[in-house]
User: What shape does this take?
Amino acid sequence: MKTIKNIPIVLFFYILFFTSYHSGYGLETNEFPYSSFTSVYPVGDVDGNSIIDIVDALLIARYYVGLTEINPGASADTDMDGSVTIVDALKTAQFYVGIIQKTAMPEIDPAGGWYTSGRTMTISSPAADAHIYYTTDGSVPFTGSSRYSSPLLINQTTTVKTGAMKQGDMASDICIVHYSLSDTIVKRGVWECPYFTDTESRHTFYAIKDNYLYVYSHYIFTDMPPDYLIIFDLTDPVKIRKAGFIELDFSVTGSIFIKDDYLYVTSVDNFRIFDVSDVIPRYVSTIEQGGSMIKISGKYGYINYASNSITIVDLHNPALPRIINTFTISGTFNDYEIYGDNIYFVKGSDGILVMNIEDKQNPVIVTEYPLSGYISHVEVAENHLFLAASGQVIVIDITDPAQPVTIGQAAIPVKPNGSIHGFVLQNNMIAIGSGYEYCFVMFDVSDPASPQMMYHYLPTDIINHLYFSGNTIYVQEGHYFFRKIDITDVQHPYVKTCIDTKLTMNDVFVAGNYAYAYDYDEGIKIFDVSDPSSPLFISPLYNEGIVADILVRGTLLYYVGSGGLTIVDVADPLHPGKISHVETTENVNSMFMRGHYVYMTQYDDGLYIVDVTNPDRPELLSQTKTNHHANAVYVPDEQNAYISDTEARLLRMDISDPAYPEKMNFFGYQTKTGLFGYGYNLFSIYNCGLEITAINDPANPVSLSTIQFPSKLIDIFAAGDYALVTCLDEQAELIDISDPGNPVRLGMLDDSGNARGVFVSGNYIYATREITSEQSPEGLIIYEIR
Assistant: This one.
């Protein structure tokens, strides 16, 4: 084994570079003979079929491995991790590694953004004598593309891609800039939250009929707005749509139940029936009998109000329901099921009670069956009772209802006294959701005497309810979230999609056809925005705590918040998967990414720098205190980082050595609570004001202007001639910054009230809105720049 130390360039083998790098970027690559290398590193004597590890690499280049002049063409294989295997050395000999530098990436001026009129664009290269190639049709430039020779007039919305090549060097990276020319912004589409609340004080119930999900949630306070029943169309399991809703004049305090074409709802004072044959519920009738739970068996309803009573309702004519009888049992019960002519009550620590109801006017006790432990839930199928009891599933044979027999049991992975909030049975599968222990588990009970645990996961919140529909289980986590699990293959169940019935978003990041919106406490939501007029919520990405900032590069999403940086693979946005995490001592406030480095700020800990060259194994390089309160960071180049500070204005740091950043100088007006950078202009927020600072000369920053607003600023996005800002409890406002020394406030974006975050991608503006009332249900608003 031979190792090359302290080589300042990542060395990729010549053959690999020519076949992979060349095809990926389009620019052609020259052949480089051994004699052309200006930097040659001997690696010593190695035998045939030996391995050379390339280490301490910083930049990408291509390398050439060969024998001495006797045989300069030895071939090699590489596995893309920096190691090379010499496969056909003729004899023990001296090997060399030659280095080829990469051409510097061209620079385009002005930067991309939204402009009100045409612009003259220039392209330059830091590399002398480099040839520059460009395209304006979206294609990747190559040596057959247009060669840049003089400034270009950009007079329409255009995407410019450019690359450079210098004789003897590798092709450069591709620089991409998008220009949007527009003087009109119009509202294009919205995504409306199913209901408008920002409180935890709700109870939620739901049921499913065919391809429609009926969700009911209500405030437990009497002075809150009206209650709603919301209907979701599940026809497309990927793109859930809201089919409609009805306003209710009462609060559902127990449950809702669907059988055939009717929806049955219980409340404190009454029992109501709705016709759902046409999806949207139509009121049918009411019985003045309150209830907290309802079961339907045949043409009869069994309503539980008090913890020891059942009311039987004749439902042969849903328009004229009729109470037949109300009876009580000794003690109290937690749950009940109807099977055949019997009701099976579970009575906590007192086992089960079987009551015959063949004569509904005169129910008769059949037997009482004691059991150890605390029984909370019951399901019944094919002459078997399935009970949830103190951390275990118990199966009882009721072939003879008068002589129940315990035949099987299995442990549920919750604490011994853990609470069970969901317990459902269908198709020989039991799904169980625990309460405060946060656990979901499934058992196969096709052999009732031997239940087998098939699947489990740890949810993000208390499981309040479970529902089976065909081969799908709906899991309600917390008050608002529904996870949809497909169990067609019980060996490999998977989450098909999720439904969130509440969404207050703080900010949004857009990449390609997807928007990633987040709320500090509720994680990240992913939207399909390929049709801007109809954004679709497709899946959630749950965090393990607070989310404070997000960004997307390629197929990777980076987010910071509780405990540091998390990297997620979003190549398939329907099934995002966590790749890695970098732990920090405190919650991170914000981040900025340049090259292979992520720069993060933490209020008390200052600046963190993380190397994400390998996303599977990111490396924390440094953590430097700023002496004050670091809030946000912007990194315009490889030399400087700018940090906003809530106590000490703006700070410039030298980051040329990421492992050892140095504090340089404080500057700017007042303390800073936010920061956005665009080129070499800084847009910094201080309470109700915005300051624009030129940082072309890092040692001598110049304050160009300040703007005052009526309330505290929350977010800013700047590009081209425009900036967008959001203020507390205000709409998003557009500002003309074509002259940064004299910015002009142009007015509010139409109908965007209570905007939180803004983002611009191509010709579209994405604004998030806080959900505060019935009058502001939109969560994500999209504007087109025309």
Notes: The longest helix spans residues 14-25. The radius of gyration is 33 Å. The chain has a mean pLDDT of 75. The first strand starts at residue 2 and ends at 4.
